[in-house]
User: Fold this.
Amino acid sequence: QVQLVQSGAEVKKPGASVKVSCQASGYTFTSYGITWVRQAPGQGLEWMGWISAYKGNTNYAQKVQDRVSLTTDTSTSTAYMELRSLRSDDTAVYYCARLKVDPHYSGNGYLYSYYFDYWGQGTLVTVSS
Amino acid sequence: EIVLTQSPGTLSLSPGERATLSCRASQSVTSTYLAWYQQKPGQAPRLLIYGASSRATGIPDRFSGSGSGTDFTLTISRLEPEDFAVYYCQLYHSSPTWTFGQGTKVEIK
Assistant:
């Protein structure tokens, strides 16, 4: 069965960095992308970035693109999210999720769906002085 | 940037009732790019619907999705006690990037 297991909760001071891991199992790691989504306390979901586990290509949300780095280690099927220059408003639960790309053939060719089919359990990152 | 607006913010219903949740995009989108998720307190989101109308594996058939263009709907035909949760719509854009709606909370009346 597919599982994404994330590292434990972190408490950081403003200006510090945090690195959250997401270890995948139950599927071929390099066949799917990994995305990261965060949720501030009592708030909605915010997409942060995507990485191709096959090629390492990335794309980041504009809001965090200057401070976030996504990487993978294919030898351990693990994805990492590093966020730098932490601020109090970075306090949130951070989720990794597997990206499923689903082709369907229509009369005029293929259409694709892109969605997050499996999620990690979440990692709480608290930024406080 | 395309914005997704969900309504209502909160839906108060009783078990057995029908729930209709709306997700409106600020411009026309490809329906295959629209998904719905359910989130319960303290849990990660769970995929319900992808491609606007396809149920994910293991999702009961009381959940259905529909819509096209700018207007999409998630319908729960008869609410079960475990369906009271927050629901999010999500849109894929090229690049790739994704946007979530702000969520609709379905609460027990």
